[in-house]
Amino acid sequence: MPSIPPWLVRRYHWILPLLVLAVLAPSYWVALHTPATGIYHDDSIYLITARTLAEGRGYSIESIPAPIAQTKYPVLFPALLAIVWKLAPAFPANLIYFKLVPLLAALLWFRLSYLLLKQESGNRFFAISAVALAASSPQVIFLSTAVLSETLFAALATASLILLIRHNRTQSLASLIAAAFLAAAAYHTRTIGLCLILGGFLALAWQRNFRQSLLFASICAALASPWILWQYLHRSAPDPYLSQENYYNAYNVIANFAWDEKLRIVSTNLITLPFSVPPLFDLSWGGILGLLCFPFALRALFRPGLPLPLRSFLLCSSAVILLWVWPPLRFVVPLLPLVLWAVWSGVPQAARNLLLTAAWLLFLNAAWSSHVFSQKALRSGFWYPLTTETEIWHEFTHQLSWIENNTPPDAIIQANVDPTIYLYTKRHAVRGSQGNASLSWYLDNQQALGSAAEFHSNLTRNHVSYLVTTPWTWFLEPPMLEQLIQENRAAHPTEFRLRDQGILPGSTIYQFTPATAPQ
User: Fold this and answer.
1) Alpha carbon distances (Å) from 66 to 60, 424, 428
2) How buried is 6 (Cβ within 10 angstroms: 0-12 exposed, 13-18 middle, 19+ buried)?
């Protein structure tokens, strides 16, 4: 068997990343240039709040009939988008510039993850492999090119961890202060950044560095306090989904649910965590791999092989994921390189070459799946993992066009993608339902969005005049909303009139005229 040329061995650390870039660049390019946006609900909220900031109307959500202060998502990511909106205010022509923000954050995240993993593992090939594997995930490609905050959070959290680990070894005060600033910035990007703050504090306190732990916590608290004060001053907002108070109180296990329901939710999340591999890498047998790797990752979290700040952060994040009424997949993505590092640390030395081989097989599978999604996106304008319909975005743009051309400017629309309706048509929109659709998965609650009577009451109270349904399969709501609509059509046949029927099943627009005046 011929040996590997020495020059290739010496230069693999930059040849291999170039090959990875060549394989993944087409998928990232297609995802970046697809016109679809607002497909995840959160991204349209970010864009709406960015516009209000850019145009001097404060940090608010204008998509609903009675605008409210934005208290659900922290301000850092929308503030960056607001700068883009200032420089390029023409929507939707400016979408590619918005998408560049998470993409550049992703590139920074990949670079910082490589530096962290190379430094701590002492194995450059593993660091390249782990980052390449993370970058190949279709979920990571989507989050890196959609207007969402995960990659910015991941970059800030990784940078803070690098500095916390450096402080552990050098006792550098500058590193500690910089780590605190970055941890607070991560918190101002996503609220789960609190796990980074708490993890850093606990790691320092565990090592009996009490003065440093108090300094770190004090800096983080001072920098985080404006957002906490903003939420306090604007609490009790009326919207059941868009306001911080109503949203977070309904989605955490600690403050809600009976004890048997708490147990079911936590145990479901615990069982689901190892099975996050299949959707991350679009792998049918990934659940088996996840089950095999999970014990090694768990073993590493309770052994001194991993730096204490990293272990504290991962344990705090895991606790929040287990206690949150939402499938864990999306929350795992920003932690992916760190989880891969934990698996590497927990695997016996003799099995690490096998693990690297499996990682590159996963990379090839994920890269191929991303290529398939890109082919679909070229036809549909819609890049999203697990998408099955190739015409789904074109169908939605038809609905948007119909709304613009056939509804009065003061019409109020009900849709599960309510802020996206407003973003493109300037028609105010509401979700129209209350509750957490994920309860249908966790607790088999078929009325997770409320009863048909409650749905009718919400439509009437919000002066809704049109209802839009979309068959977007990554949401749990569409079939549940369709059921509520059909029950109301049966109970109130004169109030609902079918106005537009799309090509795809479940793509419809109804006009709603209540028989009684709203109270």
Assistant:
1) 11, 18, 9
2) exposed
Enumerate long-range contacts of 264-270, CB under 8 Å, 24 or more apart.
264/442, 264/443, 265/323, 265/325, 265/442, 265/443, 266/322, 266/323, 268/441, 268/442, 269/321, 269/322, 269/323, 269/324, 269/328, 270/322
How far apart CA 273 and CA 444 sit, in angstroms, is 19
Residue 1's pLDDT band (cuts 50, 70, 90): very low
DSSP single-letter state for residue 2: P
Better pLDDT: 516 or 121 = 121
- Under a CB-based contact definition with an 8 Å cutoff, are residues 368 and 431 in contact? no
Q: What is the pLDDT of residue 50?
A: 96
pLDDT in tens, 158-184: 999 999 999 988 889 999 999 999 999
H/E stretch holding 512 reads strand 508-512
Q: Which two tokens stand for residue 42?
A: 């959160």
92 prior amide bond cis, ω within 30: yes
Token pair 């400016």 is found at 94
In the chain, what are the domain boundaries? 6-370, 392-512
Residue 384 Rama label (left phi>0; alpha psi -120 to 50; beta): beta
CB 102 within 8 A of CB 189: no
Between CA 410 and CA 418, with CA 413 as vertex, the angle to 5 degrees is: 120
Q: Which pTM does this prediction carry?
A: 0.93
Closest CA to 176 of 186, 190, 161, 189: 161
**Are 490 and 456 within 8 A, CB to CB?**
no
Q: How far, in Å, CA of 255 to CA of 422, rounded?
A: 33
Residue with tokens 């306190």: 205
**Cα–Cα distance measured from residue 418 to residue 428, given in angstroms and rounded to the nearest whole number:** 8
**Is the separation of the CB atoms in 455 and 433 below 8 Å?**
yes
| Res 11: pLDDT | 65
Structure token pair of residue 342: 């934990």
* Tokens (6 digits) for 349: 């030395």
Q: For the segment 405-432, what is each residue's pLDDT rounded down to a tens digit?
A: 999 999 999 998 889 999 999 999 998 7
Compute the distance between CA of residue 259 and CA of residue 479 in angstroms, rounded to an integer. Answer: 29
| β 466-469/412-414 pair status | parallel
Instruction: Report the candidate in 478, 440, 433 with the shortest Cα–Cα distance to residue 459.
Output: 433
- DSSP annotation string for 150-171: HHHHHHHHHHHHHHHHHHHHH-
Whose tokens are 């009939």? That residue is 65
Question: Taking each helix axis from N to C terminus, what angle separates 150-170 and 95-121, rounded to the nearest 10 degrees?
Answer: 30
Nearest residue to 119 via CA among 111, 385, 365: 111
* Phi and psi angles of residue 467, each rounded to the nearest 5 degrees, phi first: -120, 135
Coil/strand/helix, residue 469: strand
